[in-house]
Specification:
The chain is an alpha/beta fold. It is built from 3 helices and 5 strands. The radius of gyration is 14 Å and the shape is globular. It starts with a strand and ends with a strand. About 30% of the residues are buried.
Length: about 120
């Protein structure tokens, strides 16, 4: 079982609401449910209102992975879902698949359209 918490990097309020969702998950979800934090709209860097470092810190505090994504350009979408699926399989005793496994709270560099069309894990 997995839960994806998504906020809009251009909307501070959506990020602030993540704390409430974290509390709700802790109180109501099954113990050990895998969680993933996504900052969406990383293709809109000029309108950014939530610093990547803020979200990275929040993810580290809760021991979960963090990705910045763009649903519009598909940046990091496959990577995020694959990461969550891999974590769920590992937790349930399945075998590791894919080329790499990032630890919870893996760092994500902001989108840089000049050098790449994708955000990258660092």
């Amino acid at each position: 079982m997995g839960i994806i918490l998504v906020y809009d990097i251009t909307d501070e309020k959506s990020f602030e609401n993540i704390q409430n969702w974290m509390k709700s998950i802790k109180e109501n979800a099954s113990a050990g449910v895998q969680r993933l934090l996504l900052g969406n709209k990383c293709d809109m860097e000029a309108k950014r209102r939530v610093r990547k470092e803020q979200a990275d810190q929040l993810a580290r505090e809760h021991g979960i992975r963090f990705f910045e994504t763009s649903a519009k350009s598909s940046t990091n979408v496959d990577e995020a879902f694959s990461s969550l699926a891999r974590d769920i399989l590992l937790k349930s005793g399945g075998r590791r698949s894919g080329n790499s496994h990032r630890p919870p709270g893996a760092d994500l560099r902001a989108c840089d359209k000049k050098s790449s069309s994708r955000c990258s894990l660092g």
